[in-house]
Amino acid sequence: MNASVDAVQDAVIEEFGLFDQWMDKYEYLIDLGRKLPLIDPAYKDADHLVPGCQSQVWLHAEAEDGRVEFTADSDAVITKGIIALLIRVLSGQKAGDIAKADLYFIDRIGLKEHLSPTRSNGLVSMVNRMRNISAEYAAAT
Amino acid sequence: MQQAIAPATKTTHFDVERVRAYFPILSREVNGCPLVYLDNGATAQKPRQVIETVDRYYRDQNANIHRGVHHLSQRATSAYEAARETVAAWINAPASHQVLFNRGTTDGINLVASSWGRTNLRPGDEVIVSTMEHHSNIVPWQMICEEREAKLRVIPVSDKGELDMAAYADLLGERTRLVAVTHVSNTLGTVNPVREIIDQAHAAGARVLLDGAQALPHMRIDVQALGADFYAFSGHKLFGPTGVGILYGREELLDAMPPYQGGGDMIERVTFEKTTYNTLPHKFEAGTPNIVGGIGLAAAVDYVAALDQEALAAHEQDLLHYATGALESIPGLGIVGTAARKASVISFNIAGQHPFDVGTLLDQQGVAVRTGHHCTQPLMDRYGIPGTVRASFAFYNNRADVDALVDATRRAVDMLS
């Protein structure tokens, strides 16, 4: 049984609470970005590309038994680090939960600017795509 | 012709600390660090004189222009038209009615593409741009070329970031109607040999539009000495307000061009049978303009004009050379754009690192740079890179800003590698 979306978010917030220096936070993100399991190269194509002005993101989703698993990649490592967090929170959750998740952890760990529409790094579009895929799957099952 | 850029060894003194005191924003902090503002190519900060002019206008002078009999309207009209005179004098336009107010460089280029292009381009005609153009000096020409069945030709750029002038000479031909190139590259900093470009174009019977958005903030421009047919620039990069720009044009060309937009102010007489148009510059200024923007821009020009231009140029070249040397000492760092003649703009990449990551870590340290393709995707494709980190300096930047950039970049590299 997976921990709920909010339980995972709370755990991430607690982890980030340990960092009082911006450098520590970003070093952690860079580390997460490096560890992010790379997406199957077959999915790094135009269909899976979430276009962004600054950095590009590729997202692949697989749904089974009402849950959606995500793998993703980006050409920028900090973007990848944030993707790793989003995947940790959302991947493997029930499709309906993903579609309606309130991602409050982003703001609480001080990364809100990365998910602002003006940042145009593909993350906002990625989150929207994660939600849409899940909502469609939830509606179809 | 632009003022000669003094060599780095020039000893003329430019009191940068005194200048900085006029720019209130430079004393603020970002992410707990003193702001190091190196994104001047995107927009420049504003001196107190501009901020106070804008404030005073809304407090004391605000009224619509060109149509009121009342006192405030007449004062606002006078101030707006005086602003036009100020800008005209600064770029040495023969007459102020050749200086059109608009929203910015993009707006000016679109005006020429739409109005001049629609009446002058025939099927098979050619428009020449260059690989280093900003999208705003590419897309308007693509659009009008498609509409008029004209052809867009492109001057290639060398590895160093200079225009291939031999290729340019080959591109010029009897079908060339217009050459639209940037005076200074926003991404590379290259100062293009625009006088030569114009002379060759004119010899081939073509007109020339210069995108001066990145030139005006660094050098004084004389549109007559250059011989430009059209010259477009933005107010906000020239230390003035956002949302205002200038298009200079040769009088006979502007006179012959149809209006760009219809509306108030641009008409002489409107009937449902036939509308006749106002004279220059009003023919091209439909609707209530950015009045305070124009007046604020003039305040910016007055401010810049009062500075010692030679010392200012020498100071910026000093920053360019100092920063180039310091950045090049960082292992793995490569500068994109190493033309012999550059304005104080440095694009760079670090081997194995995405510019977005570097820029994000610089921002965390209070250093404001731009990352990405800088609206020059064909140029990024030319170099096979997704983007660059760009530090663009203004005259109010100092060597301490360069040191902060270099320290922050070193730290970013340490974290990323």
What layout of secondary structure does this protein have?
The complex is a heterodimer of chains A (141) and B (417).
Chain A: H1 5-16, H2 22-35, E1 49-50, E2 57-64, E3 67-74, H3 77-90, E4 93-94, H4 95-99, H5 105-108, H6 123-140
Helix pairs in contact in A: 1-3, 2-3
Chain B: H1 16-20, E1 29-30, E2 33-34, E3 36-37, H2 48-61, H3 71-90, E4 99-102, H4 105-120, E5 126-130, H5 139-148, E6 151-155, H6 165-171, E7 176-182, H7 194-203, E8 207-211, H8 223-226, E9 230-234, E10 245-249, H9 251-256, E11 267-269, E12 276-277, H10 291-305, H11 309-328, E13 333-336, E14 345-350, H12 355-364, E15 367-368, E16 370-372, H13 377-383, E17 388-392, H14 399-416
Parallel strand pairs in B: 3-15, 5-6, 5-7, 7-8, 8-9
Antiparallel strand pairs in B: 1-2, 4-10, 9-10, 11-12, 13-14, 14-17, 16-17
What features would you describe in this structure?
The complex is a heterodimer of chains A (141) and B (417). Chain A is 48% helix and 14% strand. Chain A has 141 residues and is of the alpha+beta class. The model of chain A has no long low-confidence stretch (mean pLDDT 88). Chain B has two domains: 16-30 and 308-416, Aspartate Aminotransferase, domain 1 (Alpha-Beta Complex), CATH 3.90.1150.10; 51-305, Type I PLP-dependent aspartate aminotransferase-like (Major domain) (Aspartate Aminotransferase, domain 2, 3-Layer(aba) Sandwich). Chain B contains 14 helices and 17 strands. In chain B, the strands form five sheets. A seven-stranded mixed beta sheet of chain B has the order 4-10-9-8-7-5-6, sandwiched between helices. In chain B, strands 13-14-17-16 form a four-stranded antiparallel beta sheet, covered by helices on one side. In chain B, a hairpin with an 8-residue loop joins strand 13 (333-336) and strand 14 (345-350). In chain B, helix 2 (48-61) runs antiparallel to helix 10 (291-305) and helix 3 packs across helix 10 (291-305). The interface between A and B is medium-sized, with 15 and 16 residues.
